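Input record, target 12 of the design panel.
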C-alpha cells in the first residue's frame, strides 16, 4: 500500500453514503422500495416497509452481511428497471443536497493527479443529479451506474467490466466506499487497494494514503 502513490491512476468511488451522507435522501429511496412492495401486494406503505425490513433481516442472516437494497427488492419480486424508474420519478435529492465546497476541494485536488470514477448501484439520472447538486459532476471521467450492465454491486462480472472499461493493472486502482461487503470486498479479492469511509471528511484518508498532505 505504501507505494500506491507511484502506481495509482484511477480512483473509483461509491456515491450514496460515500460522497454524501444524508438521511432525507436515504429515507426517500427506502420509501420508494416500501411503496413498490406495498402496491404489488395491495398493502399499505407501512406494511410494505415491514416486509422489506424482515426480508432484509432474513437475507442479512443468510449472507452474513447486509445486502444492497436492489437485492432485497429482487428477492421481493421487484424488477430492477421498475425499481429504478420509480426512484427516478419519486426521489427528490434537490430537497436535501447543496453545493459542498469541502467535497469539491477534496475531489478537486485528486482529479488534478488521477482519473476519478463513480461506481454506484444508483441510476444514471439520479447519480448525475446528485453530483450536480454537490457541484462535483465535472470532476469525473465516467459514471458507472446500474444501467452499465444491470448487475448491482457486489458482482464480480460487473466489476470485471468496469475494470476493463477503465483499463490498467490492479495496482493502478483504488476503490472507495462506505460498505465493506458491497463496495470493497470484490476489488480487495483481486488485490486492489480499498478504503472504507463513514463520512465525507474520511475522504481525506485518500490524501493521507497517497502522501498528498504536507
Ligand atoms: Mg454507499
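The sequence produced for target 12 reads:
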Amino acid at each position: 500500500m505504501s507505494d500506491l502513490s507511484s502506481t495509482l491512476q484511477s480512483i473509483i468511488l461509491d456515491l450514496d453514503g460515500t460522497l454524501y451522507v444524508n438521511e432525507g435522501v436515504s429515507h426517500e429511496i427506502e420509501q420508494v422500495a416500501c411503496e413498490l412492495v406495498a402496491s404489488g401486494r395491495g398493502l399499505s406503505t407501512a406494511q410494505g416497509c415491514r416486509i422489506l425490513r424482515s426480508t432484509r433481516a432474513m437475507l442479512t442472516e443468510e449472507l452474513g452481511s447486509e445486502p444492497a437494497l436492489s437485492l432485497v427488492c429482487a428477492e421481493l419480486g421487484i424488477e430492477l428497471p421498475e425499481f429504478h424508474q420509480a426512484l427516478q420519478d419519486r426521489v427528490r435529492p434537490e430537497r436535501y443536497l447543496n453545493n459542498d465546497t469541502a467535497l469539491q476541494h477534496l475531489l478537486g485536488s485528486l482529479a488534478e493527479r488521477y482519473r476519478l470514477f463513480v461506481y454506484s448501484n444508483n441510476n444514471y439520472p439520479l447519480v448525475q443529479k446528485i453530483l450536480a447538486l454537490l457541484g462535483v459532476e465535472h470532476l469525473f471521467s465516467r459514471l458507472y451506474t446500474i444501467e452499465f450492465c444491470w448487475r448491482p454491486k457486489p458482482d464480480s462480472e460487473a466489476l470485471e467490466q468496469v475494470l476493463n472499461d477503465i483499463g490498467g493493472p490492479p495496482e493502478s486502482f483504488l476503490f472507495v466506499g462506505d460498505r465493506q461487503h458491497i463496495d470493497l470486498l470484490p476489488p480487495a479479492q483481486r488485490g486492489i487497494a480499498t478504503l472504507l469511509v463513514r463520512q465525507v471528511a474520511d475522504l481525506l484518508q485518500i490524501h493521507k494514503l497517497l502522501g498528498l498532505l504536507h
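Residues 4-22+97-209 form a domain with the Rossmann fold fold (CATH 3.40.50.1000).
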